[in-house]
Design brief:
heterodimer, A: alpha/beta, eight-stranded mixed beta barrel, five-stranded antiparallel β-sheet, 24 helices, about 20% strand, elongated, B: about 270 residues, alpha/beta, Rossmann fold, 7 strands, about 35% helix, disordered N terminus
C-alpha cells in the first residue's frame, strides 16, 4: 500500500514508527521491530479515528490499551511510553485532516482545543483499557500457572503413590528378606519373606532390637561393622550371619546392611537385605560330610583323618599326638570264605566298636580303607592315652562278632606312633604307624607295638626296595659282576660266576642277599633271572670272541644262579635255549647253579627241565652244597655235574694248620663227588694256604677273594690273559 | 546435598523454577513470588537478562521458519518451559499448516501448563521427560504419536543445554538424540556463555551464583565447547554466532547489547 508523501496515510505510518520505536525496547516480543510496528499500525489507525470522532467512544480506546497487552507489552513502562507518544504525536500526525465544522472553518483555535481534549480522553481510556487488560491477563496467567502447579502436583503425587505402591509390592513380594530399623536398632518394618525366614510371626520381629540377634557363630567383626554403620562411618556391609528363630532353630543368611540417609545426608535408617542360606549350608555340610566320611561304616574317611592329623601336627611346639593304626588279622579269610557282604558287616561292627573306644575330646576314629582303621588322640597326656586307647581297641575286639549265624573271633594288629606334634608330616607319621602295625603282625598279630625309629628305618628300606624293584628292572638299575673261577690244577681262569647287583638311585649298590629274597617274594625274580641269564650268556660269547682263539679249545664258562621260582617256571628250558641260540654260545659254556635246598625233595617233574638242559650240554651245579640236610643218596638222581662246596667248609682252612675234621669232611665229599663223576668247586677261598689245602684235597675249581673279587666283565678278560702268560 | 534425581523439579512452588523465571523475564505472569525474587536477584548482576531471553525467542522463531523453508515440518522442542507467546507450534503452523510439534520439559508444572494450552490441538503435545535421559524422550507416547523419526526433524535445544552439568554428560545425550534422527534433520542450539556479555565475568558470576543457589546451576560454556554439541552435523550458515547474527531479518543496530550474550547455531545432520 503506497502512501502519498505527507498524505494522511504517510503521517499515520510515521506515528506508528515513532510509537514502535518508543515501545520496542520495553516489550518482550519475539517479533522484529518492523513486524512489531506493523502490529501497532491498526491501533494507530484506531486512535486517529477516535481523535476525529465528535462523540467520544471510550470502548474503542479501551480496546487499543487491551491490544497493547495482547502484543505482549506488559511492562508499565510500555503504557507510560504509549501515553507520551499519544500526547506528543497523535494530534500532530493525525489531528489535521479533521472534518470541516458546521461553520466551514477548519483548524480554528476552538478546534485545536477540542482535539487536545479528545486526545486527553483517549489517553485516559487507553490507560484504563491497558490496566484492565493487564489485570485480566495477570489474573488469567496466575490462575493458569496455579492450576498447572496443582495439576502437576496431583500427577506427581499420583506417580509417587504409584511408585510407593510399586515399592510396597516389591518390598512385600520380594523373595529376599528386607527389614528396616532405626539407628537405635529398633526394627520398624519387615517384609513377608523376612517374616517367613524367621518362622512366620511378624510381632516377633517388629519392635525387636537388632542387637538382640547375636549368635555364637557371629564373627567378631559382624558387630564391629554394625557399630560403624549406625555411627555413619560406613555406608554398607555384607556378612554371613546366623540367627536364632523364635523356635530355637538356626537361620543362616547372607546379610547386607545399608545406611539410609535423608536428603541432607544425615543417617536415618538401616536397611537389611537377607538371603536365607540355611538349606544351601545344610547341603554343603552334607556334601562335605559325604566327602569326608566312609559310606560303609559312617566313620571319618582318609581325607578327614588326614585333615585332623595335619591339624594335630600343626598344633604347636608343645603339643603331642598319639596314633593307633589297626589292621584286622585274617580279614581276607573272612571275605574269601563268607563273602564280601559278611566281610562288610564285620567291618561295620568293628567300626561301631572302635567308635565307642574313642569318645573323649580330641579322640577320633577313621577308616582308611579295607580293614585298616586309625584312632587319633590329641589329649594332654598322649603317651599314656594312646596306650590306653590301643588297650581299649584290643579289648573291644576280643568279644566275638556274630555274622551270618557265626561267631567270628576278630583279632587285630596295632602300630602305635606317639610323639611331639611339630616334628613330622602326616604322611610320615602314618607310614611309621603302618610299618609298626606290620611289625606287630609279623610278630604273630593280635598285639600292639610301639613305633621304633630303627625298626622303621629297616622296614622302610625293605618296604621301599620292594616297591622300587619292578621299576628298577625297567630303568636298567641292575648290573652284573663276575667273580672268576680258577682251575686249582694250573691256576688258569676257567670262567666266572655272574653276580647281579642293584645300583639303587638313593641307596647305592645293593647286594643280592638284600633284594633277591624280595624279588623271589614278589615274583620279579623270573624276569630278573632271565635278564641276568641273557646278559651273562652274551658276556660269555664276548669273552669267547676275544680270547677263544688263544685258549686251547677251552672257552670261558659262565655260571648263572637259578632261583627256586625260576626252576618251576614253565619257560625255563625254552628261554634258555633261545638265549643261547641267539647269543651263539655253546651250551657247554653255561653252568646253571641251583641251591641244594631248592632240590631237596624234588620230584621228577621238577627235575625234568634240568635234565633236558643237562642233556643239551648245559652244566648244572649244586650250589651251597653241605648246608642243608644233604641227601647223599639223592645225588645220583640229580642231573648235576658240579658240586659247589659251601664256604663254611673252607673257612676252617684259612689258617695253618687247618682244622683236621674239616679236612676229613672235604676230602670225603671230594672223593664222593669224583666217584659220581662230579667236579668240585669251592667258594670263599681267601688265602694261599686255603688254596694249597684244597688243591691237595683234590678240588677242581675255586673262587674267592684270594683270586679276585667280583668285578666288571673286562677285568675277567684281563685276568684270563694274565693267567695265560 | 544435591536434590535427588527422582524428585521432580518445579513441583515445590517454594523453590524457584527456571521455567517460571524465564516466563517472568519475558513479562509473563506464569510465576510465583519465589520465581520473581530469584529473577530479580539474577537481574541485579545482569539487568539485560530479559533481552537475552527475547533474543533466544527471536532466534527460535527464525530457526523454525528456516526449518520449514528447508522442508522440515516436525519439531522436537526440548526444554520448552512455559510457552507465553510466539511458541514453536504457533510459528510453525503459521509457516506450514501441517507442522507437528512435541514439547519436552522435566518441570511438571511447565508440562501441565503446556498441556492445558495445547488442549484440543492434535498437532502438538507436551511430554514429561528429561534431556539427560534421551531414551525417555524418544520413547515417549507424544513423540511416537506425532513424529516420524524416519523423516527429518528439527531438534530445538534453546536455552536448555546450559542447565545440564558435565557430570550428566550433555554431549552424550545430544549424540544419542542425533543418532535417533534421520539424516537431514536440523539441530538448533542456543547456549549461555561468558563470551559476549556486556559486563565483566565477575559480575556475571553473580547471576551464575543465583542459579546455583536455586539448585539449577547455569553452566557457562565457551564457544568451542558449545561447538562440540554439533558433532555429526554440518553447520548451517553463518555458523555458531551471537544470537542476533544468526540470519538476522532486521538492522543489527536496533539490537540491545545484551542480546549478543552467548551463542546460537543450526546444524544439519549428515
Amino acid at each position: 500500500m503506497s502512501a502519498e508523501p505527507d498524505g494522511p496515510e504517510d503521517r499515520l505510518r510515521r506515528f506508528a514508527t515513532i510509537w514502535s520505536r518508543a515501545l520496542y525496547p520495553v516489550t518482550a516480543t519475539s517479533l522484529t521491530r518492523p513486524e512489531f510496528e506493523s502490529q501497532l499500525l491498526p491501533l494507530a489507525r484506531q486512535l486517529r479515528q477516535d481523535l476525529a470522532e465528535r462523540v467520544f467512544r471510550a470502548a474503542d480506546c479501551d480496546a487499543v490499551g487491551a491490544a497493547l497487552v495482547a502484543t505482549h507489552c506488559t511492562e508499565p513502562e510500555a503504557l507510560s511510553r504509549t501515553l507520551d507518544v499519544v500526547d506528543a504525536y497523535l494530534v500532530l500526525y493525525c489531528g489535521e485532516e479533521t472534518e470541516p465544522d458546521e461553520a466551514g472553518r477548519a483548524g480554528g483555535v476552538g478546534e485545536r482545543e477540542e482535539l487536545r481534549a479528545r486526545c486527553s480522553r483517549i489517553q485516559h481510556a487507553v490507560a484504563a483499557g491497558f490496566a484492565r487488560a493487564l489485570r485480566e491477563r495477570t489474573r488469567a496467567e496466575q490462575e493458569a500457572i496455579s492450576r498447572a502447579a496443582l495439576e502437576a502436583r496431583g500427577t506427581v503425587a499420583e506417580a509417587l503413590h504409584a511408585s510407593e505402591a510399586r515399592f510396597r509390592a516389591v518390598f512385600h513380594g520380594a523373595a529376599i528378606g528386607i527389614g528396616i530399623a532405626n539407628l537405635e536398632g529398633t526394627v520398624l518394618e519387615v517384609n513377608d519373606a523376612l517374616i517367613r525366614m524367621f518362622g512366620g510371626l511378624e510381632h516377633q520381629l517388629r519392635g525387636r532390637n537388632v542387637a538382640e540377634w547375636t549368635h555364637p557363630d557371629d564373627s567378631p567383626h559382624v558387630w564391629k561393622l554394625y557399630e560403624e554403620l549406625v555411627r555413619g562411618d560406613r555406608e554398607h556391609y555384607r556378612v554371613e550371619k546366623a540367627f536364632y528363630r523364635p523356635d530355637g532353630t538356626v537361620l543362616w543368611t547372607n546379610l547386607t546392611v545399608s545406611l539410609l540417609r535423608d536428603a541432607d545426608g544425615v543417617p536415618q535408617y538401616q536397611l537389611a537385605l537377607m538371603e536365607d542360606t540355611t538349606e544351601r549350608r545344610l547341603l554343603n555340610l552334607r556334601l562335605r560330610y559325604e566327602a569326608t566320611h566312609d559310606a560303609l561304616t559312617g566313620l571319618p574317611n582318609r581325607t578327614l583323618f588326614f585333615e585332623r592329623l595335619e591339624k594335630a601336627l600343626a598344633a604347636g611346639e608343645s603339643a603331642r599326638f598319639g596314633l593307633c593304626y589297626l589292621d584286622l588279622d585274617g580279614f581276607k579269610t573272612v571275605n574269601d570264605s563268607l563273602g564280601h557282604a559278611a566281610g562288610d558287616r564285620l567291618l561295620v561292627e568293628v567300626a561301631d566298636r572302635l567308635q565307642s573306644c574313642a569318645t573323649a575330646p580330641g579322640e577320633m576314629v577313621a577308616r582308611l580303607g579295607g580293614d585298616e582303621f586309625v584312632a587319633l588322640t590329641t589329649g594332654p597326656d598322649t603317651e599314656h592315652e594312646v596306650d590306653e586307647l590301643a588297650g581299649r581297641i584290643m579289648h573291644a575286639l576280643s568279644t566275638p562278632i556274630r555274622v551270618e549265624g557265626r561267631e567270628l573271633t576278630v583279632r587285630g594288629s596295632i602300630g602305635i606312633v606317639e610323639g611331639p606334634a611339630a616334628e613330622r608330616g602326616a604322611a610320615e607319621v602314618l607310614r611309621s604307624a603302618d610299618i609298626t602295625m606290620y611289625r606287630a603282625k609279623h610278630a604273630g598279630g593280635n598285639r600292639y607295638e610301639l613305633a621304633d625309629p630303627e625298626a622303621d628305618a629297616r622296614a622302610i628300606t625293605r618296604h621301599g626296595l620292594t616297591t622300587a624293584l619292578p621299576v628298577a628292572l625297567e630303568r636298567g638299575e641292575f648290573f652284573i659282576e663276575y667273580q672268576p673261577l680258577v682251575h686249582l690244577g694250573d691256576g688258569s681262569v676257567r670262567g666266572a660266576e655272574a653276580l647281579v647287583r642293584w645300583l639303587h638311585p638313593q641307596h647305592g649298590v645293593i647286594s643280592p642277599d638284600r633284594f633277591i629274597p624280595l624279588a623271589e617274594h614278589t615274583g620279579l625274580i623270573v624276569p630278573l633271572g632271565r635278564w641276568v641269564l641273557e646278559e651273562s650268556v652274551r658276556q660269555a660269547r664276548t669273552w669267547e670272541a676275544v680270547t677263544g682263539a688263544d685258549q686251547a679249545g677251552l672257552p670261558l664258562r659262565v655260571n648263572v644262579n637259578l632261583s627256586p621260582c625260576q626252576l618251576t617256571h614253565p619257560g625255563l628250558v625254552s628261554d634258555t635255549v633261545e638265549i643261547l641260540e641267539r647269543a651263539g654260545l655253546a651250551p657247554g659254556a653255561l653252568c646253571l647253579e641251583v641251591t641244594e635246598s631248592a632240590l631237596i625233595g624234588a620230584d621228577d617233574d621238577l627235575l625234568k627241565p634240568l635234565r633236558r638242559l643237562a642233556e643239551m650240554g648245559v652244566d648244572i651245579a649244586l650250589d651251597d652244597f653241605g648246608t642243608g640236610y644233604s641227601n647223599l643218596a639223592n645225588l645220583r638222581r640229580l642231573p648235576v655235574s658240579v658240586l659247589k662246596l659251601d664256604r663254611a667248609f673252607t673257612q676252617g682252612m684259612q689258617h695253618f694248620p687247618a682244622d683236621p675234621i674239616d679236612l676229613k669232611i672235604v676230602e670225603g665229599i671230594v672223593s664222593l663227588a669224583h666217584s659220581l663223576d662230579l667236579a668240585v668247586t669251592v667258594e670263599g677261598v681267601e688265602t694261599g694256604a686255603q688254596a694249597d689245602q684244597l688243591r691237595e684235597l683234590g678240588c677242581d675249581t675255586a673262587q674267592g677273594w684270594y683270586y679276585a673279587r667280583p668285578g666288571p666283565p673286562d677285568r675277567l678278560h684281563e685276568l684270563a690273559l694274565a693267567d695265560a702268560t | 546435598m544435591e536434590r535427588p534425581d527422582w524428585a521432580p523439579p518445579g513441583i515445590d512452588i517454594t523453590v524457584p523454577s527456571v521455567a517460571r523465571m524465564y516466563d517472568h523475564y519475558l513479562g509473563g505472569s506464569h510465576n510465583f513470588e519465589v520465581d520473581r525474587e530469584a529473577a530479580r536477584k539474577a537481574m541485579e548482576f545482569m539487568p539485560g537478562l530479559p533481552k537475552i531471553m527475547q533474543a533466544n525467542r527471536a532466534f527460535m522463531r527464525r530457526a523454525v521458519r528456516f526449518s520449514v523453508d528447508e522442508g522440515i515440518t516436525q519439531f522436537l522442542d526440548i526444554g520448552s518451559g512455559i510457552p507465553t507467546f510466539g511458541n514453536v507450534h504457533e510459528v510453525a503452523r503459521r509457516a506450514h499448516e501441517g507442522a507437528r510439534v512435541v514439547y519436552v520439559d522435566h518441570d511438571p508444572v511447565a508440562v501441565a501448563h503446556s498441556r492445558a494450552v495445547l488442549e484440543g490441538n492434535d498437532q502438538a503435545a507436551a511430554a514429561y521427560a528429561d534431556l539427560r535421559k534421551p531414551r525417555d524422550i524418544l520413547g515417549s507416547s507424544e513423540v511416537k504419536a506425532l513424529l516420524d523419526l524416519d523423516r527429518p526433524v528439527a531438534l530445538l535445544l534453546v536455552a536448555i543445554l546450559h542447565f545440564v552439568e558435565d557430570a550428566y554428560d550433555p554431549y552424550a545425550a545430544v549424540a544419542e538424540l542425533r543418532d535417533a534422527l534421520a539424516p537431514g534433520s536440523l539441530i538448533a542450539v542456543t547456549h549461555a556463555s561468558y563470551e559476549g556479555i556486556p559486563v565483566p565475568q565477575e559480575q556475571a558470576d553473580g547471576t551464575v551464583g543465583v542459579y546455583r543457589d536455586i539448585r539449577t546451576p547455569l553452566i557457562m560454556r565457551s564457544r568451542l565447547e558449545i561447538a562440540r554439541f554439533f558433532e555429526g552435523y554440518d553447520m548451517v550458515e553463518p555458523g555458531l554466532v551471537p544470537m542476533p547474527h544468526w540470519r538476522a531479518d532486521t538492522e543489527l543496530a536496533e539490537e540491545d547489547p545484551w542480546s549478543f550474550s552467548g551463542f546460537a547455531g543450526v546444524g544439519r545432520k549428515r
